[in-house]
Design a protein that fits this description.
The chain is of the alpha/beta class and about 270 residues long. It is about 25% helix and about 15% strand. The longest helix has 11 residues, at about 95-105.
């Protein structure tokens, strides 16, 4: 079993901290909150400036390429042996996105602070507005390509050429195609099941629920996707925490798929 989440009261005091607070409706909020105060020693990674390459066209929050990610990790002064603790505002999908990217790059000692920033404050971690500067470090990354799928991989699943379960992490009404606030066509990728990621929220924490365990089993190969590769990551992380080992992400998501292949509407029985 992979230990994904850590309680703020139990984590090591000498680890590296990454602040990923963000708000999709107010994209400058996270950076402003960091500038006002953050855990001492933390660096800030912005969803759209660091954890996405917004110049790409494959989805609304495209994954940076390997060169871009390596540059981010190196300039952040990270090392494979570091204990890395990622936090956001709690019960959100931003720390989980950063966690997945670090695991994709082969980092082994990466954890999400369950409960977010306020739980660290409650646990007595020193808070400051001073920004710590770290010396860049050269990294020899061991990429885990097996956990990332592209649209052609997903197409093979929809056509029955590869057996796997697609799991859509968006709200049920968007999955059924009743409305679509971002893309020109509403619906979901053919054959997909639906599990709204917000069902995993318990206040400012993400928790393993009986409903997610009932939706997919550990003997399935599971490919999680959402609209743009943000809210799929909490589902991925909770499944990893629950002991699921054969899980992957179609990071480009529905916002990529809808421009290339047909979609389905309605519920899946």
């Amino acid at each position: 079993m992979v230990n994904v989440f850590v309680d703020a009261f139990k984590l090591e005091r000498d680890g590296r901290f990454i602040d990923t607070r963000f708000d999709l409706q107010n994209v400058d909020l996270g950076k402003r909150l960091f500038e006002e105060e953050h855990v001492k020693g933390a660096i800030y990674w912005d969803l759209e400036h660091d954890l996405s390459d917004m110049s790409k066209r494959d989805g609304r929050h495209p994954l940076p390429n390997k060169v871009q990610l390596q540059t981010l990790f190196e300039k952040s002064g990270l090392h494979y042996n570091d204990a890395i603790y990622i936090y956001d505002q709690g019960g959100a999908p931003y720390a989980t996105r950063a966690w997945w990217m670090l695991k994709y790059a082969g980092f082994q000692h990466v954890y999400i602070v369950n409960g977010g920033y306020e739980s660290l404050v409650a646990a007595g971690f020193e808070i400051t507005k001073e920004v710590t500067k770290y010396e860049p470090r050269a990294l020899q990354l061991q990429w885990n390509d097996a956990i990332l799928l592209n649209r052609e991989d997903v197409l093979a699943i929809t056509e029955g050429k590869h057996k796997a379960t697609l799991l859509d992490a968006r709200a049920a009404a968007r999955f059924r195609g009743e409305f679509e606030p971002f893309e020109p066509i509403a619906g979901h990728i053919p054959t997909a099941k639906n599990y709204d990621w917000e069902q995993l929220k318990d206040g400012n924490k993400l928790v393993i629920t009986s409903s997610i365990l009932d939706t997919v089993s550990k003997d399935e190969e599971i490919i999680v996707y959402c609209g743009s590769g943000v809210t799929a990551t909490p589902v991925y992380c909770i499944l990893a925490e629950a002991g699921y080992q054969n899980i992957k992400i179609y990071m480009a998501g529905y916002s990529d798929w809808v421009y290339h292949y047909p979609v389905e509407v309605g519920a899946i029985n």
